[in-house]
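Co-fold these.
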Amino acid sequence: MTSRNAVGELVSQPYKYGFVTEIETEKIAKGLNEDVIRLISSKKQEPEFLLNFRLRAFRKWLQMKEPNWAELGYPSIDYQDIVYYAAPKQNQKKSSLDEVDPKLLETFDKLGIPLGEQKRLANVAVDAVFDSVSIATTYKEKLAEDGVVFCSISEAVSEYPELIEKYLGTVVPPGDNFFAALNSAVFSDGSFVYIPKGVECPMELSSYFRINSGDTGQFERTLIIAEEYSSVSYLEGCTAPMFDTNTLHAAVVELVALDEASIKYSTVQNWYSGDEKGVGGIYNFVTKRGLCKGINSKISWSQVETGSAITWKYPSCILQGEGSVGEFYSVALTNHFQKADTGTKMVHVAPNTRSTIVSKGISAGKSSNSYRGLVQMGPKASGARNYSQCDSMLIGDLAAANTYPYIRSQQPAASIEHEASTCRISEDQLFYLQSRGIGFEEAVSMMVSGFCREVFNQLPMEFAAEADKLLSLKLEGSVG
Amino acid sequence: MRLNSKNWLTSLPQPSGTLSEVQLRGREFLFSNDLPPKNNESWRLADYEKLNRFLDLPVSNDSFLDSESRNLWPEVASGAFRVVLGPAGECNSEVSLPVGFRRLTNPEIEQMLGKTLDSCSCKDSWSVSLNHALTSELLAFSVSGRNLPPMELISHAKTNELCPTRVLIVLEENAELELLQVVLGSDFSAHSHLVEIHIGQEANLTHGLIGIGNNNSGFMANLAIEQELRSNYLFTSFIQGMAFGRVEPRLVQRDGQANTTIRGLQIAKGSEQLATHSSICFKGPNGTLDQLQKAIANDSSHSIFNGTIDVPRVAQGTNAEQLSRNLLLSSRARIDAKPELKIVADDVRCAHGATVSQLQQEEVFYLRSRGITSNQAAKLLLDGYCQEILEKLPSNAKNWIISDECKLII
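Predicted complex below.
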């Protein structure tokens, strides 16, 4: 007989990234209006087209209503009570790491992302973002040898304005949705990646987002462009300190893949999720979308979502190039009072496009975990195929698992298959493992890890091990 | 807002009879909600233009259904009996019901009416309110015992009229019934149908609903079903030929431990829009559900399926399966499917699946390799596809389905 409490306890590991870095920060006053946007833009010395882009988005945002269709039930957000720009005090982006405030380097050390030359991760280039600005980007020079551009988006605005002007907002238009419009108006920093024609990016690219201030919203924006016959793998990680207030995070990620290009985008999201009573935590509203613009291009999203009090996130693929491929692999774990409404959209526009969706949801405690996805076959998508699989695992009888797949087809020669199942950790399997001398907790985490295997297999190797560990830590205390 | 909707409401016949209070309530609701809310998920895809067209038809009050129409109906199956619904029907007349069937008395009606709607939480749904506003006659009866004659409930909407019907059925403990409902729609007619069924402990109900329209027919059916312990319910629906067709089965297993089987087929062609919005809720443990919904969309038609399964915390041990299979036969047609699962209990087995495609090329090839032409092969495959659902209809349904119907859609 397994005790529910034991499984329950397995999920509740204290959040180890909850510390705050004491550092002098430059913040602008709370509130949002056109002047604030002009101020952000002038602080970042942006060209006029970008200011106009921001203002256009802001004006659209003013006319929009906050969406309420997702079953997230969070209290209303006062958008005038948020600081829209915060940066650690330093004069300019430093030319070398030696000039960066050691406290910041220490922070990233503590997070397991050493930026210093000797300690930095081998073969992974990192762009570290602290509150609203990018602190450092490693291996920039080495990447430049292959023509790969990897830098913060602010740097890209000043150095490659023509690329920014050409691509920014083409996949997620400024008025796409409420949170995307807000992000377009006030985005502060993020990463920019450009892979030139025919280049296979020599190392993994990674960005690490850290929220430090309690009253500051984080609005990062990432833009990745893969030219013809190029490929790149990009990882994203995030953490935040523990505050008992909620912090807003509204990000936009845009990917563009041209002919025969491939982009793999992996996320391990571990924002602070609030305490066991549901106090505090990040409100995570993210718009991620990839455009498979060229023929035979490929965009693959993989995500492990374990943090945030509220998650609202639907990484999508627009399959516009003939024969293009979209993939979505997701593990979402919710515990305590966390609420996640996440999924994907696969919009098949061109013929012979293919998409695969594998989503695994694990809900424990009193949390609610929803998969919401759209598969759409346009009138021209002949020969297109989709396969979706959504599995949910429930731990405890107070957690909720919901599935809302939207399926729409306008093309007879396209085929869609969707399947979903819900189960719990089977007592038979637990008994089997325990009878072979495997401890209870280990058995549970083996089963959870087996449940998520299909998704973990898609993650870059370093991340897969980390995700597995993260999941078993998060699960500590909830299984029983 | 719909043109003349207020005029239309005030032009309705004065409320009268057992349903007069309900009628007033429904009209009040429609007065402030003249059309269903577009931001409501279940109405998001509805074709309002078509809906409007039917709503402007005058409500039928003619109590005469010409014998010519009746003559076109197939014979009553041997051993079965037939009741005609609607203003032209026999709801309130003194037509006697066979042994085992008993008309409910007014106090009983007062006690039971709307109760199942409440438990299925669809009392305030727009289409239910529309039926409330329109219907003045009610067929209410209880059923007890087994080996009863199969029952046929027929309603026929004539050209240029909107025909509202409402039925309340109480299956007593251990009762067993085979019920076939047939809804016929002439050109430019509309039908609003509401049925409440309470299925007592260990009772069995086999329920078929056939909706056959003719060009510009409109049809909205709301079914509210409540199942008690160890009861069995098999519901099979078949909808065809309706320019605007909408079936909303809502079912609650009150204390769980009941079995529900749902089979549905909708065949859409021309510019028809056919929709099924099902909702099943388990309010007790160990219930089962086996649901299979099929749809065929041809020409520039639109087929919608929206199916919710709700498994709250009390419903441990639930075993529910839902499958939506759709055939899209034309590049101008459109299919929307949304199977939904909402689960809180942890010891459950729930699965759903959905597929959208055309006929499998391998299957067509197999048949062709045996000397069957591609047209014949397609017909054979479509027949087989439909047959899986149609064979679940009550036995006396055969006479109502034009056997070669599938030819029309190829």
